[in-house]
Design goal:
The chain is 62% helix and 0% strand. It is mainly α and 72 residues long. It is elongated and about 70 Å long. The mean pLDDT is 89.
C-alpha cells in the first residue's frame, strides 16, 4: 500500500488481498442468539415504556380537567 495525503479512495486491488477473519460458525450462532435475546428484551421494554407514557398522558389529562385531584 502506498502512502497518500488527503482522502484516499478505496482501491480493490489493495484491499482485496487482505484476509478477513471471522469467528467459527458455532460462535456466530451463539452471538446471534445473544443478540436476538437482547432485541426481544429491548422490544418488551419499549412496549412497557409506551404503555407508561400512555398512562402518564391519561393521568395528566385527568389532572388538567380536574377529574382527579392531587392529595398530599
Amino acid at each position: 500500500m502506498s502512502v497518500r495525503s488527503g482522502q484516499p479512495g478505496i482501491n480493490g486491488n489493495e484491499y482485496g488481498v487482505l484476509p478477513i477473519v471471522a469467528p467459527r460458525l458455532e460462535e456466530q450462532v451463539k452471538i446471534v442468539s445473544v443478540l436476538l435475546t437482547a432485541d426481544k428484551e429491548i422490544e418488551n421494554l419499549q412496549q412497557k415504556l409506551d404503555c407508561l407514557r400512555q398512562e402518564k398522558k391519561a393521568l395528566m389529562q385527568q389532572l388538567l380537567t380536574g377529574k382527579r385531584r392531587v392529595t398530599l
